[in-house]
Design brief:
The chain is mainly α. Helices cover about 85% and strands about 0% of the residues. The protein contains nine helices and no strands. It has helices spanning about 1-10, 20-45, 50-100, 100-110, 120-130, 130-145, 155-180, 180-210, 210-239. The longest helix has about 45 residues, at about 50-100. The protein is elongated, with a radius of gyration of 26 Å. It starts with a helix and ends with a helix. Mean pLDDT is about 80; it is low at about 15-20.
Length: about 240
């Protein structure tokens, strides 16, 4: 009866937590690099007096290569995380079988860190020892701090980062598609990219819990510094 009452209370109290952190992280990685790298490349080529068509060709090639590279990096990172989890899971499973008393002592130690007294955590330790799967899950989460990864995570991360990179990378290049004179296209590209960086930075701050306006300013500043450095370097080399 008490269990049903607790379940009823939980059903009535639904906590609202943001659970799409990994997807948002992938989008942030893809869009931030997509906005800044092609932007800096286009600015650098503009500083070298390249034509809009050359800048556009180089920019599209960079976006394609960058999307593939970033997507592959996201895939490998997620795959490595999943492989690490499975290795630790197997090792922990073997330890529960080989040295159960030691593993049980580790449960007690973990619970004691939360201020739970021996007479309070003893029943919990005994209950977990009777349920090997729950015991294993407990050790993975509370001893190692590892959550079971989604098996689709690697491919999802790859596609999310790649698409985000492409969308971000197109922003500074669109003016070069519309304006044949590179210097005029550069001005439009700067304005479009800075605006996009401000919007993206604000959204990033909102979703990550930091100050949106501060995040917007910092993101736009980083993009502006990168493009200015590329433009100045191209001018210096040309000179």
């Amino acid at each position: 009866m008490a269990h049903e009452s607790e379940k009823c209370l939980l059903d009535q109290h639904k906590e609202k937590h943001f659970t799409a952190g990994e997807i948002v992280r992938d989008i942030i990685i893809g869009v931030s690099d997509g906005l800044t790298v092609p932007f800096a490349l286009a600015a650098g080529l503009s500083g070298a007096n390249a034509s809009s068509s050359i800048i556009l060709t180089a920019g599209i090639a960079e976006v394609a290569a960058g999307a593939i590279s970033m997507g592959l990096g996201g895939y490998l990172a997620a795959k490595s995380e999943a492989d690490h989890y499975m290795r630790e899971l197997k090792r922990e499973e073997e330890e529960i079988i080989a040295v159960p008393d030691t593993e049980a002592a580790e449960i007690a130690e973990i619970l004691s860190e939360y201020g739970i007294q021996p007479h309070e955590y003893a029943p919990v330790v005994n209950a977990l020892r009777k349920n090997p799967q729950a015991w294993l899950n407990f050790m993975m989460k509370f001893e190692l701090g590892l959550e079971k990864p989604d098996p689709r995570r690697a491919l999802q991360s790859a596609f999310t980062i790649a698409i985000a990179y492409i969308l971000g990378g197109l922003v500074p290049l669109i003016p070069y598609m519309l304006i044949p004179i590179a210097r005029k296209a550069l001005i439009a590209s700067v304005l479009a990219t800075i605006l996009a960086l401000l919007i993206f930075g604000y959204a990033k701050g909102h979703f990550t819990g930091s100050r949106p306006f501060r995040s917007a300013f910092q993101t736009a500043l980083i993009g502006a510094v990168a493009s200015a450095a590329a433009f100045g370097l191209a001018k210096a080399v040309q000179g």
